[in-house]
Specification:
Length: about 170
């Protein structure tokens, strides 16, 4: 009985090897390996405190996973110099950035910058990407070609003047 089962198994394996050799052939040492998926980075939200008219649209909204919420800076900033970012806890290399603009004001992101720094106050920020075109609303824009491959602990989105920090979601990888 065992010989009969083994014969059937060998016959099926042989037939499979003829019909679909990739399913039974061993992996070649020189075969390309798919890169590991980038891991979404987490950290502590940092940036401009408060929100417009104390409406609750603080920096935390940029990291809450909901593209329908957004950061909206307080009136005291006049919409200038506002930013939202993460303290990653230790230096990390950023390989990708994804973001969604505030649905009502995507144009407020044009001229905005994604930056990194070795210090929380961003005294000497390093630009990772500058937004030149109005992003589409309702879905993530993905940035893979970044200006620096160095590792940094602090990352942020710096809104352009009169931009009010308006961003719905940000993800760093």
């Amino acid at each position: 009985m065992k010989t009969f089962r083994l014969s059937i198994l060998l016959a099926l394996t042989g037939a499979l090897a003829v019909c679909a050799p990739a399913l039974v052939a061993p992996a070649r040492a020189d075969a390309p390996v798919a890169p590991a998926a980038a891991k979404k980075l987490t950290g502590t939200a940092i940036g401009t405190p408060g929100s417009y008219q104390d409406g609750g649209n603080t920096i935390a909204k940029a990291f809450d996973g909901d593209i329908n919420t957004f950061f909206d800076a307080p009136e005291s900033t006049n919409g200038n110099g506002t930013w939202v970012g993460l303290d990653l806890g230790s230096a990390k290399t950023i390989t990708k950035i994804r973001f969604v603009p505030r649905s009502d004001f995507p144009g407020r992101m044009v001229g905005g910058k994604f930056q990194s720094s070795t210090t929380k106050d961003f005294v000497k920020p390093v630009d990772l990407f500058v937004i030149k075109d109005e992003p589409a609303v309702g879905s993530f824009a993905e940035l893979k070609t970044l200006l620096s491959k160095d590792a940094f602990q602090f990352v942020r989105y710096l809104s352009p003047d009169d931009g009010w920090g308006n961003v719905a979601e940000i993800e760093f990888y």
